[in-house]
């Protein structure tokens, strides 16, 4: 059996064990179905909820918020990270304010965005941009400053221009750090979108969590959480595959590949 087969088997066994423990817990302690349904009942309810006519809309809105906010947040983080890494005076000027915004609890910022941008997707996209921006920016700064001094001296001797320095040295040296920031930001993007939807929204998976809580519908809550987890898993796998392709040459991939 190859490595992929062993990994698939291990994941399948873990899932079966989890389902077995779930059913055993529900049966042994006679947990009411409105508190926690058994696996079989949940699957039945899950199929019913997924067949709702507006379910695709809720999923699509959350995906839209995550994707647009993630892309804009990454671009802004890369741009600001590069500028702050190359110009320390800009870092001294803006870094205190960036850190101040970042350490503020996002659940307290979300209501402000709702007041400014309304209940639509714009406020959630803005929150996703905010939570994605900081890790990308920090990792870009770290990556840009990881270029060895000997390499910088060599480029100076070779009289490489700024564009040549950027493509031939700065990008390869900073890419491992940037990709680490991208992988972390995928989970932050989901968290930002869900927080925004839970504070105030007309649709979305976070909205379904709040709706399920208000109507005491545990199956709706579990369905929304499961879908969000699957989205997070897919985004992580995609970012991991992108990292493998871009960093095929890097020593960090020797054990993985």
From TrEMBL:
InterPro entries attached to this UniProt entry: MetI-like (IPR000515), MetI-like_sf (IPR035906)
Keyword terms of this UniProt record: Cell membrane, Membrane, Transmembrane, Transmembrane helix, Transport
Membrane topology term: Multi-pass membrane protein
Transmembrane feature ranges: 61-85, 97-119, 125-142, 188-212, 218-238
Superkingdom to which the source organism belongs: Bacteria
Protein name according to UniProt: ABC transporter permease
Biological source species: Paenibacillus filicis
Domain ABC transmembrane type-1: 59-239
Keyword Transmembrane helix tagged: yes
UniProt-listed CDD domains: TM_PBP2
Family statement drawn from the similarity comment of this UniProt entry: Belongs to the binding-protein-dependent transport system permease family.
Localization: Cell membrane
Record's keyword annotation contains Ribonucleoprotein: no
């Amino acid at each position: 059996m190859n490595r992929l087969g062993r990994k698939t088997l291990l994941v399948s066994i873990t899932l079966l064990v989890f389902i077995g423990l779930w059913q055993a817990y529900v049966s042994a302690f006679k947990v009411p179905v409105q508190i926690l349904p058994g696996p079989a009942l949940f699957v039945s309810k899950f199929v019913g909820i997924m067949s709702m006519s507006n379910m695709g809309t809720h999923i699509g809105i959350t995906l839209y918020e995550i994707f647009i906010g993630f892309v804009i947040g990454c671009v802004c983080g890369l741009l600001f990270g590069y500028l702050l890494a190359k110009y320390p005076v800009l870092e001294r000027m803006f870094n205190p304010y960036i850190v101040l915004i970042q350490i503020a609890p996002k659940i307290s910022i979300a209501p402000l965005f709702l007041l400014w941008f309304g209940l639509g997707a714009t406020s959630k996209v803005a929150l996703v941009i905010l939570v994605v921006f900081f890790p990308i920016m920090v990792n870009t700064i770290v990556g840009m400053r990881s270029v060895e001094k000997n390499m910088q001296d060599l480029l100076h001797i070779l009289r490489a221009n700024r564009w040549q320095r950027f493509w031939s040295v700065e990008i390869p040296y900073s890419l491992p750090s940037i990709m680490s920031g991208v992988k972390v930001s995928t989970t932050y993007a989901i968290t930002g979108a869900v927080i925004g939807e839970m504070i105030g929204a007309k649709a979305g998976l976070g909205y379904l969590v709040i709706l399920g809580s208000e109507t005491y519908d545990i199956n709706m809550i579990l369905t929304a959480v499961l879908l969000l987890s699957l989205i997070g898993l897919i985004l992580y796998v995609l970012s991991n595959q992108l990292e493998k392709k871009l960093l095929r040459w890097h020593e960090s991939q020797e054990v993985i590949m």
